[in-house]
Amino acid sequence: MFYRVFLKPTIGDATMNPGIIIGIIALAIIIVAIVIVAVRKRGAPSRKPEEEPALSPDKRKGEVAKLEEKKPEPQPPKVSPEKNVAADAVAAKKALEHPSAEDAAEQPAQREALTTDPAPGVTLDESAEEEAAARLKDARHERRIKRLRQGLAPTRGGLIAKIGTLFKEKKEIDPSLLEELEDTLITSDVGAATASWMITILKNALEKDELKNPGAVWDLLKEEVREALCVESAPLDVKTAKPYTIMVVGVNGVGKTTTIGKLATQFSDEGLKVVLAAGDTFRAAAVNQLEIWGRRAGAEVVKGKEGADPSSVVFEAVKRAEEIGADVVIADTAGRLHTKAPLMEELKKINRVMGKAKDGAPHQVLMVLDSTVGQNAIQQVAMFKEALELSGLVLTKLDGTAKGGVIIGICHEHKIPVRYIGIGEAKDDLRDFDIGDFVDALFMKEDGQ
Question: Taking the model in full, what pTM does it have?
Answer without folding.
Answer: 0.68
